[in-house]
Each structure stands twice: as C-alpha cells, then as structure tokens.
Amino acid sequence: SSIAAFAGMQKNLQEEGIINAGEITLASSRDETTFGEYGRSGLPVSFRATYYYIGYFDLGRYQISTQKSEKIENYALRLRELIELVKYRTGAKKVNIVAHSMGGLVAREYIALFGENEVNKLILIAAPNNGIRSKVQKYCSFIGAKKECEDMSSDSIFMKRLNDRNTNKKTNNIYTIAGTGCKMDAGEGDGIVYLKDAKLVNSENAKNFVVEGNCKDSLGIELHNDLLDPELYPKIYEIVKQILKE
Predict the structure, then answer these.
(1) Measuring CA to CA, how many Å separate 63 from each of 27, 45, 52, 53?
(2) How far is the C-alpha of 240 from the C-alpha of 231, rounded, in Å?
(3) Which of 76, 82, 106, 166 has the most CB within a 10 Å radius?
(4) DSSP structural state of residue 84
(5) How many CB atoms sit inside 10 A of residue 29's CB?
(6) Is the pLDDT of residue 83 over 70?
(7) What pLDDT is attached to residue 237?
(8) In 3D, which of 198, 241, 230 has the Cα closest to residue 101?
(9) In angstroms, rounded to a whole number, what is the distance separating the alpha carbons of residues 24 and 220?
(10) Which pLDDT does position 63 carry in this prediction?
(11) What pLDDT is attached to residue 168?
C-alpha cells in the first residue's frame, strides 16, 4: 500500500508534463535500461519508490506479503540505492523527493548521512518530524514495526539526533505539509501526527504548510493517509505541484 499511495498524485503530475515512469523498487536493476534512457526527452520524470524489501507468498487462494521491521537508518541506506538508480536511469544529477509519514524521516536521515548534494527539493507530507507521542506511540508497535516505532518516539535518541539544531539549521529547499482536523488526545493533528510535530522548527530554510481536513472514520486516523489523495485533498497536490514547478 505504501508504494501505491502516490499513484493518484503521480497520475496528475503526468498531466502537467512530468513523465510517469511507474514504480521503482530495490529489486529493480540498472541492467533494465541504459544510462540516461528516461531523460532523453528532456522532460522531468517521476517514480514511485519504496525502501522496503517485500516478500510475497501464495497460499492457495490467498497471497501474503511480508516485510521485516528495521531501523530508519537502514531504510536511509536503501533510499540511497534508489536515488542512485533513478539518477542512472534519468541521467539527472539531483532528485526531488516527495515523502509521506515515516518516509519523511527516512529522507531526512539520508541527508544527515550523505548530505544534500543530490537532493534538489524535499517535500514532507504528514511526517512526524518531532516524533510520535501519546496513544500513537503506545500502540505503534502493534502493527509489527517495533524498531521503527522506537526510532520515531518523540523522546528517542534517533529523533533527538535527527533534530539537532546544527544538523538541520541550513538544510535548503525543504518543505513540510501538515494535516489538521482530527481531535487527538493531546491536541490537533491528522490522527497520527500532531500538527506541532509535523513542522520543522530547527531549520532556517524550512517552509511549513497546513491543510485543514476531516476525520470521519471511527478511529479518527484516516486523514493521515487521505492527505495523499488529490481528489480528497487537491490543495496538497497544488502545493506539491507549485513547489516542483518553482
């Protein structure tokens, strides 16, 4: 579901002249294309990508997918592989990253580890930039992501290091888009991430946007994922489009 979530946004960007190259995974190979093949048109190209290794198993009528719980730093290393693959296929020197939820922390960790020389713009949608807390933190590991949940906790060593003022202060071209409209146990947010936790406050160059939404599901958490749907929240798509066009 994580790699499918951006399909609507990617389809709309195609109508803006950005070539839709589908999805790219860690199983993709450089051998499938020649260097710069996707960039020969001179037009920008979009890929949907995931840093997960996902295994699929057929059990009669059912198909089961599995993924291993790992630390966010490991995902950042895989993101580097994906960026190198995209650069090879397009011939581009830099990429733009649009990340959702924990993917935003993965992208920020990538920059912390490798610098921002290969990233032109970083757009973070509903990312817990200051961590997760309260009930979300308490129940996070029930979905089978224990190591990731430990990293994302607002008081974790990972989050404190990631948000160190000296490492984020001058990161260029970074944007956050937060959703609000859900009544959470300790304030407003998108049902998963508090509004105050989605904003980057230690970066001099970060630009923060807020979009009002609706929490209609019984658990009050669907807004967090719905924010990626251009039909439900066209304002977010418009923000992303304008940032990419600047």
Answers:
(1) 19, 32, 18, 16
(2) 14
(3) 106
(4) H
(5) 7
(6) yes
(7) 97
(8) 198
(9) 32
(10) 60
(11) 62
- Tell how strand 182-184 and strand 187-189 pair up: antiparallel
Residue 139 in tokens: 């129940």
Asked if residue 60 has pLDDT above 90, the reply is: no
Q: Which two tokens stand for residue 177?
A: 């888009």
Tell me how far CA of residue 157 lies from CA of 59, 130, 151, in angstroms: 40, 12, 7
Strands (E) across the chain are located at 19-24, 45-49, 54-59, 62-67, 95-100, 119-125, 174-180, 182-184, 187-189, 207-212
Q: Token pair of 146, please?
A: 């224990």
Give the per-residue pLDDT at 204: 75
The closest alpha carbon to 29, from 85, 83, 79, belongs to 85
CA distances from 191 to 126, 152, 178, 207, 240 (A): 10, 16, 11, 22, 22
Q: Cβ neighbours of residue 39 under 8 Å, at least 6 residues apart?
A: 45, 89, 90, 91, 92
Burial class (CB in 10 A: 0-12, 13-18, 19+), 26: middle
- pLDDT surpasses 70 at 139: yes
Q: Is 202's pLDDT higher than 60?
A: yes
